[in-house]
Design a protein that fits this description.
alpha+beta, Alpha-Beta Plaits, 4-stranded antiparallel beta sheet, 4 helices, 4 strands, flat
Length: 130
Amino acid sequence: MLYKFIAVCFLVVGLAYQTVGQVSITEEAKITQLMQHYKAENSKKSIVRAWRIQILTTNDRRQMEQGIEKFELLYPNVDYKWEHNPPYYQVRTGAYELREDLEAELLLLKKDFPSAIPVQAEMKKEELVK
């Protein structure tokens, strides 16, 4: 029985060594050229569509101002922006390229602002959180 177990172990180890390989990818010149063109055009754009966390939406300006005061008190070093998109006032914070990037901050903000949600917005590339 022990000999069979040892034989199986040697067989498995031997097969493992044989499965190691190398993969090489060859990209056509046209694809490389198209990707370079895409990167060049994309780098010219200063405005991108990305994600923010909307901590407050209300049609009452006083309520918005109270929400901003609370936010400034709780998060004094965190920038925010507010917009008036009639009839609503919206307070937003952060600037994230991917939605996944904001999830941790969203969980923290939801403790103090339960209605906080991720929203897409147009913004300058420089604003994105790195």
